[in-house]
Amino acid sequence: MQKSECHGGVQLRNRGADNCDQRTSSSIQIKHRTTVQQGKSSSSTNSPESARKSHPRPSDKLNPKTINPFGEQSRAPSAFAAIYSKGGIPCRLVHGSVKHRLQWECPPENLPFDPLLITLAEGLRETKHPYTFVSKEGFRELLLVQGAPEKAVPLLPRLVPVLKAALVHLDDDVFARGLNALVQLSVVVGPSLNDHLKHLLTSLSKRLRDKKFKEPITSALQKLEQHGGSGSLIIIKSKIPTYCSICC
């Protein structure tokens, strides 16, 4: 009886030892896997590709066109770009050896200004080709057609805020396009612009502090006065007291 109990105790101890060995073996395997995973992670972090991403080369900044357009940095197209890509602008860009031009699907004088003229004005805020050229040239050519004043004047309440957005833009080229468009509009609508002029002059006053824009803004103000009459001069002087009238 004692031998049987002793023999049973030995078996229990052996089983316990086996279980302990199995747990120890499992623990060693888990630690080994963790070490391997950490090693892989460390090697990937220290790889040249990872180092290049965390420390971009100077050439990446100087040549942004090499950035993958399908990467995370790509953004959705602007409203004007989306309309243009869908054929919403009834013209296409023709590349010339000396300069580009627009080819309209039909004579511009047959096109409705609403909403085409406003859409082109919104495109003035674009910063990429061909949208920059299409918007500024399309806006200019549309205002040159016969009957443009009658078509443009009713759109001024909606058109002026769009032009203002271009004039307050931080990009200098966008501002310049907005300034040219404002002058072109003034030539067409004349004194009708006076009622909306005060909304546009604040941004011009701020840009006057920039030396490179002082001359073009002064020239633009003179044309606004020329086409807006004496009423425009009063408005300009109220917003920009330093302005000197063309009549002086």
TrEMBL record:
Residues 1-71 are annotated as: Disordered. InterPro entries: ARM-like, ARM-type_fold, Parkin_co-regulated_protein. It comes from the Eukaryota. Gene3D superfamilies: Leucine-rich Repeat Variant. Transmembrane segments: none annotated. It holds the Pfam family ParcG. Residues 22-49 have a biased composition (Polar residues). This is Parkin coregulated like. The gene is PACRGL.
